[in-house]
Specification:
With about 300 residues, the protein is α+β, with helices and mostly antiparallel strands. The protein is built from 15 helices and 5 strands.
Length: about 300
Amino acid sequence: MAEGNAIGEFLRARRELVRPEDVGIPELDRRRVPGLRRSELAMLAGISTEYYVRLEQGRDRHPSTMVLEALARALQLDEHATAHLHRLLAPVPRRAPRRRAEKVSPQIDVLLRSLDPTTPAYVTGRLTNVLAANSLATAVLPLLVPGTNFVRATFLDPIADQLYDDLEARRAAAAAGLRAFAGPHVDDPELTELVGELSVKSPDFRRLWSRHDVKPMHGALPRLGIRHPQLGPIDLYHQKLQIPGSGGQVLGLLYAEPGSRSEQAVAMLAAMMTKPEGHRVARRAQHVSPTDAADASAS
């Protein structure tokens, strides 16, 4: 991941996403590149063009908070992207501490199993590696099989294309979430390996990653529309809760609107899971063919 000048990459990418007409700058001539010119962004932020160029080139890494807030306003950044801009200029330790193998605590493992009859639940760690999931979670969303990297699967696993109603939105959220995790740690070896692999194998990832969108993947997330091979289309809420004292692990919960058809469908799937053939149901959901998905949706 060639991003030695992370602040410059971010400023340049976000500058190119702002349309001049959206910030009151008339388009008087044909532009060779999209977005704002450096001089225009500097004017909007109330700083000199020369100073802005130094920032974008990484030659000044000590702008004031006032300057960063002015740039954030000029670039129309939301709160997450603004926080990311500040983090990019925070001091980064030269050597990251040695990382231990990620494990889910026994208490969280019990929680996952206790939720199994009613609620799909899972835990992710660094870089959205799925560390644990109850059987209902993997039956509802096969991308949650433990050992899977959720971002990698969203871009590279053919199952994602068959399951998601809005694959573009899911991929955009995955790239923005990974960017939020990265922050200034662009030289993290595991992150570098993951981004490098996805950049080579997925044109969609390259396009979305180059936007430098930032959206942490925790809290209340957009609803998931899933085309389930056994249940047909279902619509689920998605919550991700940070687990205190876990080193950054996140508990994910999927649940439907009470009384909805989706809630009834998930309950039916849970009931199927308790029968002797339930394990075969879970395995089928993890190997969806396009024909099966289309037949299930039509039924």
